[in-house]
Amino acid sequence: MKAQKVLVKSLLILVGTGLIWRWLSRNRSLPCPTWLSSLLDSRWSDRLLGTQTTLDRIGLRPGQRVLEIGPGPGRLLIPAAKRVLPGGKVIGLDIQPGMIERLKARAAQAGVSNLTTILGDATKPNVPPESFDVIFFCTVLGEIPDRAAALRQCYATLKPGGVLSITEIFPDLHYQSRATVRQLAKAEGFHLQTTHGPWYFFTANFIKA
Predict the structure, then answer these.
(1) CB 185 within 8 A of CB 163
(2) Are residues 176 and 202 in the same domain?
(3) Is residue 69 within 8 Å of 140, Cβ to Cβ?
(4) Against a cut of 0.85, is the pTM above it?
(5) DSSP output for 28-52
(6) Which residue in 2, 101, 198, 204 has the most C-beta neighbors within 10 A?
(7) What is the tens place of the pLDDT at every residue in 142-188?
């Protein structure tokens, strides 16, 4: 009985913390802390979070110029860099200096030379217009208070016919539903191309008309 009470109490604390974090993130940027990035640096996290499945759904091709918003330590961006070879290049835009440094170190360790980073805000990324073939988010869109502004910048930054790819995984604290993602992207001028996967792990790909 005592063990059950401890379990219930722990679950309530976890759920309560998640709800508070989610509410606070509506008004301020609360990205995943750098000190938690080690949880994303393992084969276990690759399998649990479907790294290869996500990259397959995005549909990266050799020669493309790709931007990931909020790459963290590079769970997706480092293997993405290998997929766009030969001739392709990937860039990671992150708001946290610690994540940028960790991403650079992991890329160097993996021998990836076609990956660069930008320390900045998704709502004002300071990159040339129409300069990317693909821009993708993975469990990051909900961390951005002004999601509309971020997607507006994506539209301006993508080449005509470019792809915006958004992946959401439940129960991420900032999870965005398929309907919410479609609504936000449509409001900024994107057209839905494909949706892959069930509601709890989906990737929606949009086209810049």
Answers:
(1) no
(2) yes
(3) yes
(4) no
(5) S--PPPGGGGGGGSSHHHHHHTTHH
(6) 204
(7) 999 999 999 999 999 999 999 999 999 999 989 999 999 999 999 99
Verify cis geometry, omega within 30 degrees of 0, for the bond prior to 145: no
User: How high does pLDDT run on average in the chain?
Assistant: 86
H-helix or E-strand spanning residue 194: strand 190-196
CATH number of the CATH domain containing 58: 3.40.50.150
Strand order in the sheet with 201-208: 115-119, 89-94, 65-69, 132-138, 158-169, 201-208, 190-196
In terms of Cα–Cα distance, which of 33, 15, 13, 23 is closest to 174?
Answer: 23
* Domain coverage including residue 201: 32-208
Cβ 34 vs Cβ 95: under 8 Å: no
- Tracing tokens 């650079």 back to the chain, one arrives at 104
In contact, 160 and 186? CB cutoff 8 Å? no
